Amino acid sequence: MKSIRTKLKLNNKQKTLFAQHAGYSRWCYNWGLSLWNAAYIDGYKPNASCGMLRKRKLRDVFTNHTKPLYPWMKNLSSKVYQYAFINLSEAFQRFFKGLGKYPRFKKKGRSDSFPTEMLPYGMLRKRKHN
What we know:
Mean pLDDT: 76
Strand content: under 5%
Radius of gyration: 17 Å
Order of helices and strands: HHH
Number of strands: 0
Distance between the termini: 43 Å
Structural class: mainly alpha
């Protein structure tokens, strides 16, 4: 398998937008993990086979109850938080199958990432100078 590594040359506005999306993804993952930790401590141990149900329930609680409390989230892609919950669900599935450790909180600056397929079209295009 062959891969190509590229470096993006971003302007300040694009760097800021990328950092906001990475922070949003980390915030959502950590929010979901804290919610699951509280449920796990209270004795709720979800079945590993109902992964889709957990993702959907977590996403619905976030969308309907938490997201309206934070207006800054409206400016960022909704796919970012959906993928954060998918990643969290997969981490728990690996944990319950004995393939991994219990999920940990993400820290700023350590492998900051978010899905790039849903970025606004043209965000990386060069501006035309007249």
